[in-house]
Batch of 2 targets.
Target 1
Amino acid sequence: MNVRAADRGLLSRITIPLAALVIRRQFRAHYAVLSRIAEEDRRAWSD
Amino acid sequence: MEGCYVAFQLRLDEMRRATTCTCSACALIGALDLKFVAHLGSFVLQQTPNGLKPLGPDVILVHRLLKNGVGAVFGTKAYAFLTDALLERTGGALGLPAHSERYDDLGEVRGRVADLAQAVVRHREARIYVGRDTADLTLVTALPVPRAIAWEYHIDPRKRMRWQLDAREIAAKPNAAGRAGVGWESHCDHGAYTLVHRAVDWRPFDYLTSRPRRSTAGQSRFPGASAPSSSVRTGPAARWSP
């Protein structure tokens, strides 16, 4: 997943890295769950 | 006409992807094509049992023009032949190449030809894609499923609810044409705020690019990057193994 801020205002050099930190943490958790679910589904389908 | 033809081709793409049927009709979906003939002239309307019907020499001319040599000359089955009579009224030659047809009873008909296949090529090249080199944030996750399944995990609200655990409710709304594609929206209810993302580029099963259409408190939670464009990639760069 690639994310790019559409709004590159005056404070973007500060706010975008901060926001990226939050989004990265949030989506890392999401994708950890997705990886687990995908593996579970794959095993279920192959049974 | 170009917009109509592009929509037609995109629909064919969807139909090809959606069917595994091997009957001759489905197998020949890819062979379907469209041509347009547009002319400006006079006619009279005659009432028939099936409704009003245009009549006159110009109507006959348009029907004759449907059988022409454009395909042989320009090497394409997808084209619009616009007669000079029409173009004189609508703004000139539009930079299109000239072509003429001759009929024994109607004489020479001059016009211009638009290659509609090129319109589809231009549409396909008009991508909105966030590459790694321009992204503010990149996440790479390996998923042990085929691309089509990975795509479904990102599109199907029921599947998304299984892994986006902070969402109270996720809904997907089709675009104005009633389909999943550009204009499709994801409504993600997080309780205190709702994020609405609209697809601006839709390339199953390669990537999806979306932009926030509107959001509430989400704007203040993610200042600066409150309006991210995101590409969910299923390609090799995302290392989602087949």
Target 2
Amino acid sequence: MSELRWHPLLEEWVVTATHRQDRTFLPPPDFCPLCPTRPGGFPTEVPADNYQFVVFENKFPSFRREPPAPAVAGDDFYRVAPAAGGCEVVLYSPEHGGTLADRPVGDIERLVRVWTDRYRVLGSRPEVDYVFIFENKGEAIGVTLHHPHGQIYAFSYLPPRIERELAAAANHHARTGKCVYCDVLARELADGCRIVAENASWVAVIPFFARYPYETYLLPRAHRDSLLDLSRSERTDFARLLKTVLVKFDGLWGFSLPYMMVMHQAPTDGIARPGTHLHVEFYPPLRTPQKLKYLAGCESGAGTFINDTLPEEKAAELRAVPCPAF
Amino acid sequence: MVPGSDAEVAEAEEMAVREITLEDGRYLVYYSFEVGCGPPSLAPSLADGRAEDADV
């Protein structure tokens, strides 16, 4: 069962999804539910013996197309609502091993096209206000299946982090008439010291205000609201830069770096807003090869991040990681 | 972009999309890429609609 419960102290929705407690936890490779179904083998989620990319509705979703009624009765103070929306799983490859960093640029380019199509399809549903593409990678993040995959959540409302970003962008636009992301990018390019990598149409940077040591943003140089607005060359450059950053992450300490990867783009609620600017944010949770950056008391209880490092130094570290030209 | 590179090949491909419904009512979409592949053509070789115990 899942439902939305209103948090009156923060004025935001909390999702309860108790059925997710039962999901499979780190199955052995021979019983991976995301691999193709081999002839004579056990039936996986994908009823085919091969595939390139697959997207399917999560078996343990937090949001559903036809959500059940809430398990409890709400009122004006403790509001409840059905958890409408959708949760999709995106399989990057039929191969069980490896990560997105191991895929050739062409495959990452194909994945960008899949993401673009899912943004279009999910965003066209009337109940979907926000399409959130993301990937949790590594057991340090709590991943329960190692097969290379990402996820997409289709929200029936604007999630609070997104709402806050949009409000900041609107405020900046009202003050200056400009996009705050375009201004951040211009400032980062002028300073230069926090740039991780760049190509003709995209830039990767650990921004001035990074909260995690290796928090890396990927932004298109031109103002683009969503994946749908990318030109062919911009889409290809996006794939090339994504590959570059992923290779640098894995080369940093010589092992596959865990991360959260999230994509922010224009809401799909039909409301035009100034200052929405497509971008990707990476939050690798490690601050050293052995030490996690915990979201502890100050981060969780006060909402203020304490970054033990300087973005300028961490960006220099990533720049120095050898990486072929993609 | 390097002429003839993997990325350039990917851009030249057509994307085929085929959606099926699993036994429990969920949808599953196959995406395949091929130069000049035309309409969705990727045919799963096993019966549609089998799904067990996956989670994410």
